[in-house]
Amino acid sequence: MSYDALRRPLRPLARIIRAREQGENPDDIARENLRLRHEKMQKKARDRAESRLLVLGLAFVIAFGTIGARMGILANTDPEEPRAVASGNPIIGQRSDIVDRNGRILATNFDTHSLYAHPDDLIDPANAARELARIFPELEAEKLYADFTGSRKFLWVRRQISPEQMQAVHDIGDPGLLFGPREMRLYPNGPIAAHILGGASYGNEGVSSAEVIGVAGVERHFDEVLRDPANEGRPLALSLDLTVQAALEEVLAGGMTLMNAKGAAAIIMDIDTGEVMAMASLPDFDPNNRPRVLTEGDQSDSPLFNRALQGVYELGSVFKIFTVAQAMDLGLVNPDTMIDTTGPLRVGGFPIRDFRNYGPELSVTDVIVKSSNIGTGRIAMMIGADRQRDFLDSLGLLEPTPIEMTEGRTGQPLLPGNWRELSTITISYGHGISVSPLHLAAAYSSLLNGTRVTPTLLRQQGPVEQGPRIVSAPVADRARDMLAQVVSRGTASFARIEGYTIGGKTGTADKPREAGGGYYDDKVIATFAGMFPAEEPEYVIVVTLDEPVETSGPEPRRTAGWTAVPVAAEMVRRTAPLLGLRPQVELGSLDGVTLTGSRD
Predict the structure, then answer these.
(1) CA proximity to 561, closest of 477, 496, 480
(2) b vs e for 185-223, b when ≥16 Cβ sit within 10 Å of the residue's Cβ?
(3) What does the alpha-carbon distance between residue 237 and residue 105 come to, in Å, rounded to a whole number?
(4) pLDDT tens digits, the chain, 600 residues: what are they?
(5) What are phi and psi of 306, to 5 degrees?
(6) What Å distances lie between residue 571 and 102, 157, 278, 563, CA to CA?
(7) What is the CA radius of gyration of the chain?
(8) What is the C-alpha to C-alpha distance for residues 278 and 572, in angstroms, rounded to an integer?
(9) Is the preceding peptide bond at 533 cis, omega within 30 degrees of 0?
(10) What phi and psi, each to the nearest 5 degrees, are found at residue 117?
(11) Burial code of 414-432, b = ≥16 C-beta within 10 A, e = fewer?
(12) Cα distance between residue 268 and residue 181, in whole Å
């Protein structure tokens, strides 16, 4: 009972006395006071309830108003993907794709699983080992059982497995065999562009994730870029054209087989930008199943060895155009200057001979067309050792190529220790100096373009800044004309194909012995370096065959004119349409054709 009720009793004495004097019932006074008290209590309770409802209603209005305002703000802002922050996480799972110049996939990621075991949780180790050896033939049941029953608490079984293999392991039904998520690198085109892409493997690993890292090629060179989350998965666009690359590799493989060669390399490069449209080395490999590095023997025999980039060879007479172009640029000769070709040319007691007797003299043009060592040597003597070295250096032939591959720095040219007169003469026709086919492709692009061209595997966007001038434009034009004549009437006549004109130079160099010095009598490096179309060159092509032998005739033929040239010609025939070059069609005679008109 409240304090107010104590002060005001239900039966007040004054009213009771007054009611009795007037003959009224005193109980009515108590009932009336009780009714008034109840009404007051009800009113107070009702007011309190209404206040609570008002506060609750205001709270709901404020909450829904806040939510509505927030939704309105979100609706009027630009959409943005949420960003996950994982500071301190040592394993980066995402890796960007690699695509060709047209956006076609060369390397991508594929979700798979790894397989590991907790030996303590295995119910039947013998059965698990036996069944795993059946699913994975490369595993040995005895070794697995020994590992399962030993002291190890954790054991990797396979770093990555296919969905079918995962289901087969599931069917074993042993709780000690567990799976972890994995992201593996996938090369959907198999061995195509294998040496360029290189391959990938796992770095830091855990049961729930693994770090994919590049181990060779552009995968390794651009490893940080491909793994950088800031790139938001943007693909790495290469200069390669996948269709051109596939066609080049197919023709090169066929040519290597037909010419009985030990190995082969080929490059197609944009003559203006230095973009490598296709580059191949044979034998090759599948980067999805990258072979192990050789632990013994010659590393150049490994399919991992990139002959186009890592292989440095004496490439022979393909160097002669450099000597003649430099002499013309220096004003020492012109295309019609007559050069003494009587032989042999003796320098320091060493005789220099031509492949056959070309007579007492040849024009500078015919020195290239007929490929005269003596004529080229005499022109080199006019130039001198210092100027020759500087010119070859300006072509990039004295240092590793700056191509975007980790193997690029391993392609170090082999130069004479003392660049004397004899070295000057032999280098003028491609002996005494060893460079890679990629060096040669870049040097031909620079010479025929007139300015220094840097080879690249990245697709170039927009105009490319020209490098330093190598030779004047007229000299570049004369060099192109000489190379065209080598095909039309010289040592590369097999390069004539219907629809496309090719210019180029052959080179056949005796192969040096691995030990003991000297050269083999029956082993050569055959090379063709050329351009197409010959009138306005857009691309440079280089084809090199290691120890080729053409056996269709009564005697084996090893020269580049019989081996490398036909392969290069077929490459141009196959790849030129893919590069957007239209064939030139000669119109036939209109004799006997009657022209008729139509009447309205």
Answers:
(1) 496
(2) bbbebebbbbbbbbbbbbbeeeeebbbbbbbbbbbbbbb
(3) 9
(4) 454 545 566 667 777 777 777 777 777 777 777 888 888 888 888 888 888 888 888 888 898 888 988 888 877 776 655 554 444 444 545 789 999 999 999 999 988 888 999 999 999 999 999 999 999 999 999 999 999 998 889 998 988 888 899 999 999 999 999 998 888 899 999 999 999 999 998 888 777 778 889 999 999 999 999 999 888 889 999 999 999 999 999 999 999 999 999 999 999 999 999 999 999 999 999 999 999 887 776 777 899 999 999 999 999 999 999 999 999 999 999 999 999 999 788 887 788 988 888 889 999 999 999 999 999 999 999 999 999 999 999 999 999 999 999 898 888 999 998 999 999 999 999 999 999 999 999 999 999 999 999 999 999 987 888 899 999 999 999 999 999 999 999 999 999 999 999 999 999 999 988 877 788 888 999 999 999 999 999 999 999 999 999 998 899 999 999 999 999 999 999 999 999 999 987 655 555 555 444 443
(5) -95, 100
(6) 21, 45, 11, 13
(7) 42
(8) 12
(9) yes
(10) -135, 145
(11) ebeeebeebbbbbbbbbbb
(12) 41
The DSSP-derived string for 519-584 is EEEEEEEEEEEEEESSSS--EEEEEEEES--B-SSSS-B-STTTTHHHHHHHHHHHHTTTTTPPPP
Cis peptide preceding 413, ω within 30 of 0: no
Using DSSP's 3-state secondary structure scheme, residue 390 falls into helix
Assigned fold of 312-493 = Beta-lactamase (3.40.710)
Question: Rounded distance, CA 314 to CA 20, Å?
Answer: 144
Distance CA 321, CA 17 (A): 144
What kind of fold does domain 98-237 have according to CATH? Penicillin-binding protein 2a (Domain 2) (3.90.1310)
Task: With residue 215 as reference, give the H or E element that holds it.
Answer: strand 210-216
Which tokens hold the place of 31? 């009932």
Q: How many C-beta atoms surround the C-beta of residue 409 within 10 A?
A: 14
Where in the chain are the domains?
3-53, 98-237, 239-281+556-585, 312-493
Strand pairing category for 503-512 and 519-532: antiparallel
For helices 163-172 and 125-135, the axis angle rounded to 10 degrees is: 160
Q: Which amino acid is at 567?
A: V
Whether omega before 119 lies within 30 degrees of 0, making that bond cis, reads no
Exposure string over 138-171, b if 16+ CB within 10 A, otherwise e: eeeeeebbebbeeeeeebebbbbbeeebbebbee
